């Protein structure tokens, strides 16, 4: 079966198919002027004191901003970050990963790990977010091929929502914002590593006041262009729309179970309490 990556020009916020020009295919670094003359521009080597990130942005999108932007994050080590970054830039130039990506140089690495952020314009757009994920899974990048990946909104970043105080302080904040709920997840979407079935899976986190999570999209890693086109017609338009469906189904399920089982019951068997990571419960699409 011939695999295919998804052309993001099919989605709102990106150029229409076939509209690319030579200028639009040019990739630039927003902080190019801050590099020292002798800098190699490699994330594993860049130590320029005035460079916060090494960027790859379509030239015609340098000055664009989006109100609902977010990013998938990769964490290659220093020995693999250059190779991973080159592949991300190549995919970006081919317009398979949206309009922008950035990588941490040496000064920003933690525990010998560099973060690569691959942006989308609208974190509510399930198709756009999932298409970038599917492309990353097919990219051959070791840190994107089979490990768990997380997608974080820029709103969460600006609000100092981090898993630990150390991470927040490293990003320039006084500390991490308190989660407020035991089930709260820093990431809006999570894609667990492959479980042997070679499917790309994406769950939506923090659904409703109980911060439920549910599988919002899945597709075989190796899918034909026809398979991709047909499947994408079935995806919800927005994350909020899907969350409303999950909450409605959860309410109905709990209501029916209460009618038939008025005594105290084990909620761990309820669909609403499905544990995505352990595989317990009975999730629905």
From TrEMBL:
This is Uncharacterized protein. It comes from Spumella elongata. Belongs to the UPF0696 family. InterPro entries: Bles03, TIF_eIF4e-like. Signal peptide: none annotated. Pfam families: Bles03 (PF08939).
């Amino acid at each position: 079966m011939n695999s295919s990556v998804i052309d993001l020009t099919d989605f709102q916020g990106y150029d229409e198919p076939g509209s690319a020009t030579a200028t639009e295919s040019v990739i630039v670094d927003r902080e190019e002027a801050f590099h020292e003359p002798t800098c190699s521009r490699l994330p594993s080597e860049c130590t320029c004191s005035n460079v916060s990130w090494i960027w790859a942005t379509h030239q015609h999108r340098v000055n664009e901003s989006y109100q609902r932007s977010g990013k998938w994050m990769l964490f290659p080590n220093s020995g693999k970050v250059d190779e991973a970054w080159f592949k991300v830039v190549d995919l970006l130039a081919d317009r398979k990963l949206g309009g922008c990506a950035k990588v941490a140089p040496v000064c920003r690495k933690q525990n010998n790990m560099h973060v690569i952020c691959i942006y989308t314009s609208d974190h509510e757009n399930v198709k756009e977010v999932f298409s970038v994920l599917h492309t990353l899974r097919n990219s051959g990048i070791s840190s994107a091929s089979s490990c768990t990946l997380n997608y974080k909104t820029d709103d969460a970043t600006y609000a100092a929502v981090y898993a630990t105080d150390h991470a927040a302080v490293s990003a320039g904040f006084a500390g991490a914002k308190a989660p407020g709920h035991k089930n709260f997840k820093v990431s809006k979407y999570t894609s667990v590593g492959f479980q042997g079935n070679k499917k790309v899976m994406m769950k939506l986190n923090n659904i409703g006041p109980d911060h439920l999570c549910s599988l919002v999209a899945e597709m075989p890693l190796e899918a034909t262009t026809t398979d991709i086109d047909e499947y994408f017609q079935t995806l919800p338009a927005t994350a909020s729309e899907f969350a409303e469906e999950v909450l409605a189904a959860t309410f109905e399920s709990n209501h029916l179970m209460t009618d038939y089982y008025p005594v105290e019951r084990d909620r761990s068997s309820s669909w609403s309490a499905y544990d995505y990571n352990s595989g317990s419960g009975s999730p629905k699409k």
